[in-house]
């Protein structure tokens, strides 16, 4: 008897849960509450109130869980766990390569090294380097080509 009364008033219960939770999954919440109530050995005094309260509580729990995990499906949770830092062996290899490049830069002729550093570290344009060092833009291009060729050969197979 009570079950037929619940099913007859299901739309009313659902409307209450939707109003109280403002969630799109209100029907799922209400259904879960019904399954939970049906599994109990002792029936509550007021089944409708129990269902609405249980569904609202499940909605609050879901809201809190989503707030921590980042969304209803938890997509952001995995992204937040992702560590973008390189693996230790990658960091060691990168440090070794950087040391090799630094050694190569130190082996460049002084003027070529200066042109290279002004372009790569200070981000100056060839024209600006030429003006600063009082040399032609063509000379800057030749120094850069020389530096890049040497460093390419120096770091080959590294």
TrEMBL record:
Gene3D superfamilies (alphabetical): 1.10.1740.10, Winged helix-like DNA-binding domain superfamily/Winged helix DNA-binding domain (1.10.10.10)
Ranges for domain RNA polymerase sigma factor 70 region 4 type: 101-151
UniProt keyword annotations, A-Z: Sigma factor, Transcription, Transcription regulation
Entry annotated with the keyword Protease: no
One Pfam match: Sigma70_r4_2
NCBIfam families: sigma70-ECF
Family designation: Belongs to the sigma-70 factor family. ECF subfamily.
The protein, known as: RNA polymerase sigma-70 factor (ECF subfamily)
